[in-house]
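Summary for the lay section of the report: proteins are chains of building blocks that fold into shapes. Here we show the chain for RNA 2',3'-cyclic phosphodiesterase and then a coded description of the shape we predicted for it.
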Amino acid sequence: MFSIANSVKNKARLFFAIDIPQNIKNQLEKMQQKNPVFTGRAVKVHNFHITLQFLGSLDRQKIPDLIDTIDSPGIKPFSLTLERYAYYPKAEVGCIEVIQGKDQLKEVRKHINQSIAQEGFFAPKEKHGFRPHVTLFRECQPVSDLQQLLNIELKAERFCLMESVQNEKGVYYEVLEEWPLYQPSIKEQFFGIKD
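The coded shape description reads as follows.
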């Protein structure tokens, strides 16, 4: 089994994700502090993201090749809503799940997996279906009603490749590269067409 400690020199622990705007990260941090739905280890605000595809451990010298396999999926920017709390008991994770925008996230994920597979990179098989979410707490337990409805909206315009880096303060997720979801054509750029 992979250990983050083993990744420091020549391996990197990687995943593709939607990074979250700072104003939404700040809102989620306030929810962590003021709304005791879960008790456990709070995820640091700079680490909030929506995972699209976990890759696992990869040799560092292969990262440029991995980056070169990805291009824009041609999916126009779309809205996401974080709508409900969820608890994953096996992982002891407390989170907020994406409802609106889930199908578009699946399409972005499919594009990533097809792109990397063409160049011989493969993501590990997942035991559970794709459930896009933002993790708020780890090693936690629910202590309140998970049925509360939320309505946190953000726009997905880009996706990124992130590395899980271990430092003296714990785990930090660093963006290595990012791509727009959609590259407008010359005609669209010239005429300012947005839809």
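Put simply, here is one thing we learned. The beta strands are 11-19, 38-42, 49-59, 78-88, 93-98, 133-142, 149-156, 158-167, 170-180.
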